[in-house]
Specification:
Layout lengths: L2 H9 L7 H39 L29 H7 L13 E6 L5 E4 L1 H6 L8 E4 L6 H13 L4 E7 L3 H8 L3 E4 L22 H24 L5 H17 L5 H9 L8 H5 L1 H12 L20 E5 L7 H19 L7 E5 L2 H4 L3 H12 L1 H4 L1 E7 L14 H11 L3 E4 L7 H8 L3 H6 L7 E6 L2 E7 L3 H7 L7
Parallel strand pairs: 3-8, 3-9, 4-6, 4-7, 5-6, 7-8
Antiparallel strand pairs: 1-2, 1-11, 9-10, 10-11
Helix pairs in contact: 1-2, 7-8, 7-11, 7-12, 8-9, 9-11, 14-16
Amino acid sequence: MSDKKLHAAALVTPAKEKRRDRKAREAATRRRYADEAAARKAEVQARYDAERAEARDANYLPHGGEPGPASLRQYRRLHIPTHQDTSATLQGAYPFLSGGGLGAEGVFVGQDLYSGSSFVYDPWELYRRGVITAPNVVLAGIVGSGKSSLAKSLYCRSIAFGRRVYIPCDPKGEHAKIAEQIGGKAISLGHGLSARLNPLDEGHRPGGISDIDWKAQVASRRRDLIGALAETMLTRPLSPVEHTAVDVALRAVVSESEVPVLPLVVDRLLSPGPDADERLEEDGRHVGHALRRLVAGDLAGLFDGPSTVRFDPSLPMLALDLSRVAENNALMSVLMTCASAWMESALLDPAGGQRWVVYDEAWRLMSHPALLKRMDAHWRLARHLGIANLLIFHKLTDLDNVGDQGTQQRALASSLLANAETRIIYRQESDQLGITAQMLGLTGTERKLLPSLGTGQGLWKVKEMSFLVQAQLHPDELTAFDTRSRML
Protein backbone atom coordinates (compact mmCIF):
# COMPACT_ATOMS: atom_id res chain seq x y z
CA MET A 1 0.00 0.00 0.00
CA SER A 2 1.29 3.45 -0.88
CA ASP A 3 2.14 6.17 1.65
CA LYS A 4 -0.91 8.20 0.68
CA LYS A 5 -3.30 5.21 1.01
CA LEU A 6 -1.70 4.23 4.30
CA HIS A 7 -2.10 7.75 5.63
CA ALA A 8 -5.71 7.83 4.44
CA ALA A 9 -6.43 4.51 6.13
CA ALA A 10 -4.98 5.85 9.33
CA LEU A 11 -7.34 8.83 9.24
CA VAL A 12 -10.47 6.72 8.62
CA THR A 13 -11.84 5.36 11.85
CA PRO A 14 -14.06 2.25 11.64
CA ALA A 15 -17.52 2.66 13.24
CA LYS A 16 -17.06 0.15 16.06
CA GLU A 17 -13.26 0.70 16.62
CA LYS A 18 -12.26 1.68 20.08
CA ARG A 19 -10.29 4.81 20.75
CA ARG A 20 -7.38 2.84 22.16
CA ASP A 21 -7.03 0.77 19.02
CA ARG A 22 -7.25 3.83 16.83
CA LYS A 23 -4.39 5.58 18.68
CA ALA A 24 -2.27 2.45 18.47
CA ARG A 25 -2.83 2.28 14.72
CA GLU A 26 -1.89 5.96 14.30
CA ALA A 27 1.26 5.50 16.35
CA ALA A 28 2.25 2.55 14.18
CA THR A 29 1.69 4.67 11.08
CA ARG A 30 3.93 7.46 12.43
CA ARG A 31 6.70 5.00 13.31
CA ARG A 32 6.57 3.59 9.80
CA TYR A 33 6.88 7.12 8.33
CA ALA A 34 9.85 7.89 10.60
CA ASP A 35 11.59 4.64 9.69
CA GLU A 36 11.19 5.31 5.98
CA ALA A 37 12.49 8.92 6.36
CA ALA A 38 15.49 7.73 8.33
CA ALA A 39 16.23 5.12 5.65
CA ARG A 40 16.07 7.76 2.91
CA LYS A 41 18.34 10.10 4.91
CA ALA A 42 20.86 7.33 5.52
CA GLU A 43 20.87 6.51 1.80
CA VAL A 44 21.52 10.16 0.87
CA GLN A 45 24.26 10.46 3.53
CA ALA A 46 25.94 7.28 2.29
CA ARG A 47 25.88 8.54 -1.30
CA TYR A 48 27.38 11.91 -0.17
CA ASP A 49 30.11 10.20 1.87
CA ALA A 50 31.00 8.01 -1.12
CA GLU A 51 31.32 11.03 -3.41
CA ARG A 52 33.55 12.85 -0.92
CA ALA A 53 35.77 9.80 -0.51
CA GLU A 54 36.06 9.50 -4.28
CA ALA A 55 37.00 13.19 -4.56
CA ARG A 56 39.66 12.82 -1.88
CA ASP A 57 41.19 9.83 -3.65
CA ALA A 58 41.24 11.55 -7.08
CA ASN A 59 44.66 12.93 -8.37
CA TYR A 60 43.91 16.54 -9.32
CA LEU A 61 46.49 19.03 -10.73
CA PRO A 62 48.25 21.23 -8.17
CA HIS A 63 47.58 24.95 -8.12
CA GLY A 64 50.79 25.67 -10.02
CA GLY A 65 50.04 23.11 -12.73
CA GLU A 66 52.04 20.09 -13.77
CA PRO A 67 55.84 20.05 -13.33
CA GLY A 68 58.18 19.97 -16.29
CA PRO A 69 57.21 21.06 -19.83
CA ALA A 70 53.51 21.39 -18.86
CA SER A 71 54.18 23.71 -15.92
CA LEU A 72 51.90 26.68 -15.17
CA ARG A 73 48.93 24.94 -16.86
CA GLN A 74 45.92 25.00 -14.56
CA TYR A 75 42.78 22.92 -14.65
CA ARG A 76 40.63 26.07 -14.49
CA ARG A 77 40.49 28.65 -17.28
CA LEU A 78 42.52 31.78 -16.71
CA HIS A 79 40.27 34.84 -16.70
CA ILE A 80 42.08 38.16 -17.29
CA PRO A 81 40.19 41.39 -17.94
CA THR A 82 40.90 42.60 -21.46
CA HIS A 83 42.12 46.06 -22.37
CA GLN A 84 41.91 47.56 -25.85
CA ASP A 85 43.84 50.55 -27.16
CA THR A 86 45.68 51.75 -30.22
CA SER A 87 49.08 50.28 -31.07
CA ALA A 88 50.69 53.72 -30.77
CA THR A 89 49.45 54.07 -27.19
CA LEU A 90 50.45 50.54 -26.20
CA GLN A 91 53.91 51.06 -27.68
CA GLY A 92 54.46 54.07 -25.43
CA ALA A 93 53.11 52.35 -22.32
CA TYR A 94 54.84 49.02 -22.90
CA PRO A 95 57.83 49.73 -25.17
CA PHE A 96 59.46 46.34 -24.59
CA LEU A 97 56.34 44.27 -25.38
CA SER A 98 55.22 45.99 -28.55
CA GLY A 99 57.76 44.45 -30.93
CA GLY A 100 58.35 40.97 -32.22
CA GLY A 101 62.14 40.91 -31.73
CA LEU A 102 64.95 41.01 -34.27
CA GLY A 103 64.61 37.47 -35.53
CA ALA A 104 66.86 34.45 -35.06
CA GLU A 105 69.55 35.16 -37.67
CA GLY A 106 72.71 36.73 -36.29
CA VAL A 107 75.15 36.63 -33.41
CA PHE A 108 73.82 35.42 -30.07
CA VAL A 109 74.10 38.16 -27.44
CA GLY A 110 72.09 36.97 -24.47
CA GLN A 111 68.54 36.88 -23.16
CA ASP A 112 65.72 39.32 -23.71
CA LEU A 113 64.66 39.92 -20.10
CA TYR A 114 61.06 40.75 -20.99
CA SER A 115 60.19 37.99 -23.43
CA GLY A 116 62.63 35.42 -22.04
CA SER A 117 63.78 34.51 -25.54
CA SER A 118 67.28 34.57 -26.98
CA PHE A 119 68.48 37.92 -28.32
CA VAL A 120 70.64 37.99 -31.45
CA TYR A 121 72.07 40.92 -33.34
CA ASP A 122 73.84 41.35 -36.67
CA PRO A 123 73.95 44.77 -38.36
CA TRP A 124 74.58 43.28 -41.81
CA GLU A 125 71.61 40.92 -41.51
CA LEU A 126 69.35 43.69 -40.23
CA TYR A 127 70.45 45.92 -43.09
CA ARG A 128 69.73 43.16 -45.60
CA ARG A 129 66.20 42.78 -44.22
CA GLY A 130 65.62 46.53 -44.26
CA VAL A 131 65.28 46.85 -40.47
CA ILE A 132 68.09 49.45 -40.30
CA THR A 133 69.73 51.68 -42.89
CA ALA A 134 72.90 52.56 -40.93
CA PRO A 135 75.02 49.66 -39.56
CA ASN A 136 76.91 51.78 -37.00
CA VAL A 137 76.60 51.14 -33.26
CA VAL A 138 77.07 53.40 -30.22
CA LEU A 139 77.75 51.74 -26.85
CA ALA A 140 77.80 53.76 -23.62
CA GLY A 141 78.07 52.69 -19.99
CA ILE A 142 79.83 53.59 -16.77
CA VAL A 143 82.93 51.73 -15.55
CA GLY A 144 82.07 48.22 -14.38
CA SER A 145 78.74 47.96 -16.22
CA GLY A 146 79.97 45.28 -18.64
CA LYS A 147 80.07 47.28 -21.88
CA SER A 148 83.62 46.18 -22.72
CA SER A 149 82.73 42.50 -22.38
CA LEU A 150 79.70 43.01 -24.61
CA ALA A 151 81.80 44.63 -27.34
CA LYS A 152 84.40 41.87 -27.21
CA SER A 153 81.84 39.07 -27.30
CA LEU A 154 79.99 40.74 -30.16
CA TYR A 155 82.96 41.05 -32.49
CA CYS A 156 84.59 37.74 -31.46
CA ARG A 157 81.42 35.78 -32.16
CA SER A 158 81.03 37.60 -35.48
CA ILE A 159 84.30 36.09 -36.70
CA ALA A 160 82.54 32.72 -36.97
CA PHE A 161 80.17 34.37 -39.47
CA GLY A 162 83.06 35.45 -41.70
CA ARG A 163 83.51 38.96 -40.35
CA ARG A 164 86.89 40.58 -39.61
CA VAL A 165 87.76 42.98 -36.83
CA TYR A 166 89.93 46.12 -36.86
CA ILE A 167 90.85 47.96 -33.66
CA PRO A 168 92.54 51.19 -34.84
CA CYS A 169 93.11 52.33 -31.25
CA ASP A 170 93.52 50.14 -28.17
CA PRO A 171 94.56 52.59 -25.43
CA LYS A 172 94.57 49.98 -22.65
CA GLY A 173 95.85 46.91 -24.52
CA GLU A 174 92.69 44.90 -23.77
CA HIS A 175 91.81 44.02 -27.36
CA ALA A 176 95.41 43.20 -28.29
CA LYS A 177 95.37 40.16 -26.01
CA ILE A 178 92.19 38.89 -27.61
CA ALA A 179 93.61 39.38 -31.11
CA GLU A 180 96.52 37.08 -30.27
CA GLN A 181 94.21 34.45 -28.77
CA ILE A 182 91.92 34.17 -31.80
CA GLY A 183 94.62 34.00 -34.44
CA GLY A 184 94.87 37.69 -35.24
CA LYS A 185 97.69 40.14 -34.71
CA ALA A 186 98.38 42.97 -32.31
CA ILE A 187 100.74 45.74 -33.36
CA SER A 188 102.26 47.39 -30.30
CA LEU A 189 103.78 50.83 -30.82
CA GLY A 190 105.67 52.98 -28.36
CA HIS A 191 109.08 54.14 -27.28
CA GLY A 192 111.42 51.28 -26.49
CA LEU A 193 109.59 48.80 -28.76
CA SER A 194 110.98 47.37 -31.97
CA ALA A 195 107.91 48.14 -34.08
CA ARG A 196 108.19 51.15 -36.37
CA LEU A 197 105.55 52.61 -38.65
CA ASN A 198 106.21 54.40 -41.93
CA PRO A 199 103.27 56.71 -42.65
CA LEU A 200 104.15 56.74 -46.37
CA ASP A 201 103.79 53.00 -46.95
CA GLU A 202 101.70 52.09 -49.97
CA GLY A 203 99.52 49.82 -47.88
CA HIS A 204 97.32 46.97 -49.04
CA ARG A 205 96.63 46.92 -52.78
CA PRO A 206 93.12 45.77 -53.70
CA GLY A 207 92.76 43.23 -56.43
CA GLY A 208 91.67 44.21 -59.94
CA ILE A 209 93.05 47.76 -59.85
CA SER A 210 95.30 49.08 -62.61
CA ASP A 211 98.79 50.44 -61.99
CA ILE A 212 97.74 53.97 -62.95
CA ASP A 213 94.76 53.98 -60.61
CA TRP A 214 96.82 52.44 -57.81
CA LYS A 215 99.53 55.08 -58.11
CA ALA A 216 96.90 57.82 -58.05
CA GLN A 217 95.30 56.36 -54.92
CA VAL A 218 98.64 56.01 -53.14
CA ALA A 219 99.65 59.57 -54.02
CA SER A 220 96.32 60.94 -52.81
CA ARG A 221 96.47 58.98 -49.58
CA ARG A 222 100.04 60.07 -48.87
CA ARG A 223 99.19 63.68 -49.53
CA ASP A 224 96.14 63.53 -47.28
CA LEU A 225 98.09 61.74 -44.57
CA ILE A 226 100.95 64.26 -44.51
CA GLY A 227 98.39 67.06 -44.38
CA ALA A 228 96.51 65.37 -41.52
CA LEU A 229 99.73 64.81 -39.56
CA ALA A 230 100.75 68.45 -40.06
CA GLU A 231 97.30 69.69 -38.96
CA THR A 232 97.49 67.47 -35.90
CA MET A 233 100.89 68.79 -34.89
CA LEU A 234 99.98 72.42 -35.69
CA THR A 235 96.49 72.12 -34.15
CA ARG A 236 95.08 74.16 -37.04
CA PRO A 237 94.13 73.65 -40.71
CA LEU A 238 96.80 74.11 -43.36
CA SER A 239 96.77 77.17 -45.59
CA PRO A 240 96.71 76.82 -49.40
CA VAL A 241 100.43 77.67 -49.73
CA GLU A 242 101.27 75.06 -47.09
CA HIS A 243 99.32 72.44 -49.02
CA THR A 244 101.33 73.35 -52.10
CA ALA A 245 104.61 73.04 -50.20
CA VAL A 246 103.63 69.61 -48.91
CA ASP A 247 102.59 68.43 -52.37
CA VAL A 248 105.84 69.58 -54.01
CA ALA A 249 108.04 68.07 -51.30
CA LEU A 250 106.18 64.76 -51.38
CA ARG A 251 106.38 64.40 -55.16
CA ALA A 252 110.11 65.12 -55.06
CA VAL A 253 110.74 62.48 -52.40
CA VAL A 254 108.64 59.82 -54.19
CA SER A 255 110.46 60.41 -57.45
CA GLU A 256 113.91 60.16 -55.84
CA SER A 257 113.40 57.35 -53.31
CA GLU A 258 112.32 53.75 -53.73
CA VAL A 259 110.89 53.75 -50.19
CA PRO A 260 109.82 57.28 -49.24
CA VAL A 261 110.02 58.04 -45.52
CA LEU A 262 108.98 61.00 -43.42
CA PRO A 263 112.50 62.38 -42.68
CA LEU A 264 113.04 62.92 -46.42
CA VAL A 265 109.79 64.90 -46.67
CA VAL A 266 110.82 67.03 -43.69
CA ASP A 267 114.20 67.75 -45.30
CA ARG A 268 112.47 68.77 -48.54
CA LEU A 269 110.10 71.10 -46.71
CA LEU A 270 112.90 72.83 -44.82
CA SER A 271 115.34 72.81 -47.78
CA PRO A 272 113.45 72.59 -51.10
CA GLY A 273 116.68 72.62 -53.11
CA PRO A 274 118.32 75.05 -55.54
CA ASP A 275 115.98 74.21 -58.43
CA ALA A 276 112.77 74.81 -56.44
CA ASP A 277 110.90 78.06 -56.09
CA GLU A 278 112.57 80.09 -53.37
CA ARG A 279 109.21 80.89 -51.80
CA LEU A 280 108.54 77.20 -51.04
CA GLU A 281 111.01 77.25 -48.15
CA GLU A 282 109.06 80.04 -46.43
CA ASP A 283 105.67 78.54 -47.31
CA GLY A 284 106.55 75.13 -45.84
CA ARG A 285 108.63 76.26 -42.90
CA HIS A 286 105.95 75.83 -40.21
CA VAL A 287 104.81 72.50 -41.62
CA GLY A 288 108.39 71.25 -41.81
CA HIS A 289 109.16 72.14 -38.20
CA ALA A 290 105.88 70.57 -37.04
CA LEU A 291 106.64 67.28 -38.83
CA ARG A 292 110.25 67.37 -37.67
CA ARG A 293 108.99 66.65 -34.18
CA LEU A 294 107.99 63.19 -35.45
CA VAL A 295 111.48 62.32 -36.68
CA ALA A 296 113.89 64.27 -34.47
CA GLY A 297 111.95 65.58 -31.50
CA ASP A 298 110.21 64.01 -28.52
CA LEU A 299 108.18 61.75 -30.84
CA ALA A 300 111.20 60.37 -32.72
CA GLY A 301 111.82 56.67 -33.17
CA LEU A 302 108.41 55.59 -34.44
CA PHE A 303 108.03 57.24 -37.85
CA ASP A 304 111.57 57.98 -39.05
CA GLY A 305 112.27 54.88 -41.15
CA PRO A 306 110.78 51.96 -43.09
CA SER A 307 108.04 49.99 -41.38
CA THR A 308 109.00 46.93 -39.36
CA VAL A 309 105.38 45.72 -39.10
CA ARG A 310 102.93 44.88 -41.84
CA PHE A 311 99.21 45.45 -42.02
CA ASP A 312 97.68 42.11 -43.10
CA PRO A 313 93.98 42.56 -43.90
CA SER A 314 93.45 38.82 -44.34
CA LEU A 315 93.77 38.13 -40.61
CA PRO A 316 90.55 37.71 -38.60
CA MET A 317 91.52 40.54 -36.24
CA LEU A 318 94.04 43.37 -36.15
CA ALA A 319 94.55 45.61 -33.13
CA LEU A 320 96.82 48.62 -32.73
CA ASP A 321 98.04 48.53 -29.14
CA LEU A 322 98.73 52.09 -27.96
CA SER A 323 98.85 51.37 -24.23
CA ARG A 324 102.51 52.49 -24.09
CA VAL A 325 101.61 55.98 -25.38
CA ALA A 326 98.15 56.40 -23.86
CA GLU A 327 99.26 59.37 -21.75
CA ASN A 328 100.79 61.25 -24.72
CA ASN A 329 97.82 62.70 -26.56
CA ALA A 330 99.92 64.11 -29.39
CA LEU A 331 101.64 60.80 -30.08
CA MET A 332 98.38 58.84 -29.84
CA SER A 333 96.75 61.20 -32.31
CA VAL A 334 99.62 60.76 -34.77
CA LEU A 335 99.60 56.97 -34.46
CA MET A 336 95.83 56.89 -34.94
CA THR A 337 96.12 59.06 -38.05
CA CYS A 338 98.70 56.70 -39.55
CA ALA A 339 96.67 53.63 -38.59
CA SER A 340 93.59 55.12 -40.24
CA ALA A 341 95.55 55.49 -43.49
CA TRP A 342 96.66 51.87 -43.26
CA MET A 343 93.11 50.74 -42.60
CA GLU A 344 91.54 52.75 -45.40
CA SER A 345 93.59 50.98 -48.06
CA ALA A 346 92.17 47.63 -46.87
CA LEU A 347 88.62 48.95 -46.49
CA LEU A 348 88.57 50.04 -50.12
CA ASP A 349 89.21 46.49 -51.29
CA PRO A 350 85.89 45.10 -52.62
CA ALA A 351 87.06 41.58 -51.77
CA GLY A 352 87.94 42.48 -48.20
CA GLY A 353 84.65 41.26 -46.75
CA GLN A 354 82.61 42.72 -43.92
CA ARG A 355 84.41 44.18 -40.93
CA TRP A 356 83.83 45.53 -37.45
CA VAL A 357 85.80 48.73 -36.81
CA VAL A 358 85.92 49.33 -33.05
CA TYR A 359 86.81 52.67 -31.47
CA ASP A 360 87.36 52.13 -27.75
CA GLU A 361 87.69 55.05 -25.30
CA ALA A 362 86.23 57.24 -28.04
CA TRP A 363 86.36 60.38 -25.93
CA ARG A 364 90.15 60.40 -26.47
CA LEU A 365 89.86 60.18 -30.24
CA MET A 366 87.16 62.77 -30.72
CA SER A 367 89.30 65.46 -29.11
CA HIS A 368 91.53 65.49 -32.22
CA PRO A 369 89.88 67.25 -35.19
CA ALA A 370 91.81 65.33 -37.86
CA LEU A 371 90.81 61.97 -36.36
CA LEU A 372 87.24 63.09 -35.91
CA LYS A 373 86.99 63.97 -39.61
CA ARG A 374 88.29 60.54 -40.60
CA MET A 375 85.86 58.81 -38.22
CA ASP A 376 82.97 60.81 -39.62
CA ALA A 377 83.97 59.83 -43.16
CA HIS A 378 84.10 56.15 -42.21
CA TRP A 379 80.68 56.36 -40.59
CA ARG A 380 79.07 58.02 -43.58
CA LEU A 381 80.63 55.49 -45.98
CA ALA A 382 79.90 52.44 -43.80
CA ARG A 383 77.41 50.91 -46.23
CA HIS A 384 79.68 51.53 -49.20
CA LEU A 385 82.68 50.00 -47.41
CA GLY A 386 80.74 47.11 -45.90
CA ILE A 387 81.79 47.97 -42.35
CA ALA A 388 80.02 48.42 -39.03
CA ASN A 389 81.62 51.01 -36.75
CA LEU A 390 81.36 50.50 -32.98
CA LEU A 391 81.92 53.59 -30.84
CA ILE A 392 82.49 52.93 -27.12
CA PHE A 393 82.49 55.55 -24.38
CA HIS A 394 81.21 56.08 -20.86
CA LYS A 395 78.34 58.52 -21.25
CA LEU A 396 76.62 60.46 -23.99
CA THR A 397 77.60 63.78 -22.45
CA ASP A 398 81.14 63.02 -23.66
CA LEU A 399 79.90 64.31 -27.01
CA ASP A 400 79.27 67.71 -25.43
CA ASN A 401 82.93 67.93 -24.44
CA VAL A 402 84.08 67.79 -28.06
CA GLY A 403 84.86 71.30 -29.28
CA ASP A 404 82.87 74.42 -28.46
CA GLN A 405 79.16 74.89 -29.00
CA GLY A 406 78.43 75.67 -32.65
CA THR A 407 81.82 74.55 -33.98
CA GLN A 408 82.38 72.05 -36.75
CA GLN A 409 84.03 69.66 -34.33
CA ARG A 410 80.91 69.55 -32.12
CA ALA A 411 78.71 69.03 -35.19
CA LEU A 412 80.86 66.11 -36.36
CA ALA A 413 80.70 64.47 -32.93
CA SER A 414 76.91 64.80 -32.86
CA SER A 415 76.64 63.34 -36.36
CA LEU A 416 78.30 60.13 -35.15
CA LEU A 417 75.32 59.52 -32.89
CA ALA A 418 72.85 60.56 -35.58
CA ASN A 419 74.36 58.08 -38.07
CA ALA A 420 74.05 55.14 -35.67
CA GLU A 421 70.65 53.44 -35.61
CA THR A 422 71.71 51.01 -32.88
CA ARG A 423 72.28 52.58 -29.48
CA ILE A 424 73.18 50.37 -26.52
CA ILE A 425 72.97 52.05 -23.12
CA TYR A 426 74.37 50.32 -20.05
CA ARG A 427 74.09 51.61 -16.49
CA GLN A 428 74.19 55.39 -16.18
CA GLU A 429 74.52 57.65 -13.17
CA SER A 430 71.43 59.52 -12.01
CA ASP A 431 72.76 62.90 -13.09
CA GLN A 432 73.09 61.63 -16.69
CA LEU A 433 69.50 60.46 -17.10
CA GLY A 434 68.04 63.72 -18.37
CA ILE A 435 70.54 64.40 -21.15
CA THR A 436 70.63 60.70 -22.12
CA ALA A 437 66.85 60.52 -22.40
CA GLN A 438 66.79 63.73 -24.41
CA MET A 439 69.51 62.68 -26.87
CA LEU A 440 68.03 59.24 -27.47
CA GLY A 441 64.33 60.09 -27.15
CA LEU A 442 63.74 57.63 -24.31
CA THR A 443 60.33 57.08 -22.75
CA GLY A 444 59.76 57.49 -19.03
CA THR A 445 59.83 53.71 -18.55
CA GLU A 446 63.17 53.40 -20.36
CA ARG A 447 64.71 56.29 -18.45
CA LYS A 448 63.84 54.75 -15.08
CA LEU A 449 65.63 51.54 -16.02
CA LEU A 450 69.08 53.03 -16.64
CA PRO A 451 70.35 53.61 -13.06
CA SER A 452 69.15 50.18 -11.87
CA LEU A 453 70.65 48.01 -14.63
CA GLY A 454 72.87 45.20 -13.41
CA THR A 455 76.23 44.12 -14.78
CA GLY A 456 75.84 43.02 -18.37
CA GLN A 457 72.32 44.41 -18.69
CA GLY A 458 71.69 47.00 -21.36
CA LEU A 459 68.91 48.93 -23.03
CA TRP A 460 69.10 48.26 -26.77
CA LYS A 461 67.51 50.88 -29.02
CA VAL A 462 67.42 49.47 -32.56
CA LYS A 463 65.79 52.18 -34.63
CA GLU A 464 62.30 52.47 -33.06
CA MET A 465 62.43 49.18 -31.14
CA SER A 466 63.54 48.75 -27.53
CA PHE A 467 64.91 45.66 -25.78
CA LEU A 468 66.24 44.98 -22.31
CA VAL A 469 68.99 42.41 -22.76
CA GLN A 470 71.17 40.46 -20.36
CA ALA A 471 74.45 39.60 -22.10
CA GLN A 472 75.63 36.05 -21.51
CA LEU A 473 79.26 34.93 -21.64
CA HIS A 474 80.86 31.51 -21.85
CA PRO A 475 83.22 30.81 -18.91
CA ASP A 476 86.20 30.97 -21.29
CA GLU A 477 84.97 34.33 -22.60
CA LEU A 478 84.50 35.59 -19.08
CA THR A 479 88.12 34.74 -18.30
CA ALA A 480 89.48 36.27 -21.51
CA PHE A 481 87.37 39.45 -21.35
CA ASP A 482 87.84 40.15 -17.64
CA THR A 483 89.34 43.60 -16.99
CA ARG A 484 89.38 43.31 -13.18
CA SER A 485 92.50 41.15 -12.81
CA ARG A 486 94.58 43.86 -11.17
CA MET A 487 91.79 44.82 -8.76
CA LEU A 488 91.21 41.18 -7.78
